[in-house]
Design brief:
Largest sheet: none
CATH class of the largest domain: Mainly Alpha
Radius of gyration: 19 Å
Distance between the termini: 32 Å
Number of domains: 2
Order of helices and strands: HHHHHHHHHH
Number of strands: 0
Strand content: under 5%
CATH architecture of the largest domain: Orthogonal Bundle
CATH topology of the largest domain: Rna Polymerase Sigma Factor, Chain: A
Length: about 200
């Protein structure tokens, strides 16, 4: 999807949307208005996800990237400097996150990447520890049986990747792939629930 495609979609479905973005952003930046943020999120989320799909291989990755963008806005509104338009800033920011996503995945690495998401949520008291734990394990249960088994051996049983590989007759690289997939599913579930809570009030 090109920038022109997004503009055309906006013009045909909600002509006042783009013109209303600037006052909504200014209101959110200056006051932290949840209502203004909710309108920006609702107005741009779907279009930005389709835009992210121009670079990324699947909608799950696109959704996660766009949610990262909105979470950054929510957490850092007072330090975000939009010198042109909200539309221009949003498109550039999502594009840059997509390019970073592609760059980071040129090499395979496994880390506890959900930590940043969890800390952001806990710090702002939007989802308590009990809710977060429930969301995590619901996400784990949605994994394929093998990915779920690998993740549980890693996180619940405390086994190393090499130990898991030996016990399941897999390569270490395959184990890393299953854990990466599990962490991605968990991060996306946490972010989606964070925003569902945020925009429901």
């Amino acid at each position: 999807m090109t920038v022109t495609d997004i503009d055309a979609a906006k013009d045909s479905t909600d002509g006042a949307s783009v013109a209303a973005d600037e006052p909504l952003w200014n209101e959110f930046r200056d006051t932290g208005s949840r209502k203004a943020f909710r309108k920006l999120f609702s107005g741009w989320y779907s279009d930005l996800c389709r835009y992210a799909m121009f670079w990324l291989p699947d909608m799950v990755s696109a959704e996660e990237t766009v949610l990262d963008f909105f979470m950054h806005l929510w957490l850092h509104r007072t330090s975000v400097n939009i010198s042109s338009s909200f539309r221009g800033y949003a498109l550039r920011a999502v594009r840059n996150r997509c390019l970073n996503w592609l760059r980071d995945r040129r090499t395979v690495s496994v880390a506890i990447e959900e930590a940043d998401t969890l800390s952001c949520i806990y710090e702002h008291d939007r989802i308590n520890a009990e809710d977060a734990s429930r969301i995590v394990w619901e996400a784990v249960r949605s994994l394929s049986p093998k990915s779920r088994e690998v993740f549980e051996k890693s996180r619940t049983d405390g086994m190393s990747n090499a130990e898991i590989a030996a016990s399941m007759n897999l390569s270490v690289k395959t184990v890393e792939g299953h854990i990466t997939k599990a962490l991605k599913t968990i991060r996306l579930a946490l972010k989606k629930n964070f925003f569902l809570f945020l925009i429901s009030f």
